[in-house]
From TrEMBL:
This is lactoylglutathione lyase. Pathway: Secondary metabolite metabolism; methylglyoxal degradation; (R)-lactate from methylglyoxal: step 1/2. Its EC number is 4.4.1.5. It comes from Vitis rotundifolia. Binds 1 zinc ion per subunit. In the homodimer, two zinc ions are bound between subunits. Its cofactor is Zn(2+). GO terms for biological process: methylglyoxal catabolic process to D-lactate via S-lactoyl-glutathione.
Length: 128
């Protein structure tokens, strides 16, 4: 779960930049928050990213416990381009990591949360 400062902005970013879809959205006015579940398919068969907007909170301190979300992709170069076109900030241009040659790209979402995309085929080779 990631806390976000503007839920609609974040939903739009994850749809356009990451290719995720909005699976469901639920507002909880009694407790002053709204959640959006994002993913690549049905929640019962796929990993899901929960975005939480707490009413009136537009920014969070990232702390030092969070590193990144890692997501597999078939093409890190196309993924980086989609992120750029969606207003995301690339923090590591796509390409191979020195020493292991697995291709990755890294970015920040509009709230500053870091994600890394890892080439699916390269990653499977690393596991062998």
């Amino acid at each position: 779960m990631l806390r976000v400062g503007d839920l609609d902005r974040s939903i739009n970013f994850y749809e356009k930049a990451f290719g995720m879809e909005l699976l469901r959205k639920r507002d909880n006015p009694e407790y002053k928050y709204t959640i959006a579940m994002m993913g690549y398919g049905p929640e019962d068969k796929n990993a899901v990213l929960e975005l939480t907007y707490n009413y009136g909170v537009s920014e969070y301190d990232k702390g030092n416990g969070y590193a990144q979300i890692a997501i597999g992709t078939d093409d890190v170069y196309k993924t980086a381009e989609a992120i750029k076109l969606s207003g995301g900030k690339i923090t590591r241009e796509p390409g191979p990591l020195p020493g292991i040659n697995t291709k990755i790209t890294a970015c920040l979402d509009p709230d500053g949360w870091k994600s890394v995309f890892v080439d699916n085929i390269d990653f499977l080779k690393e596991l062998d």
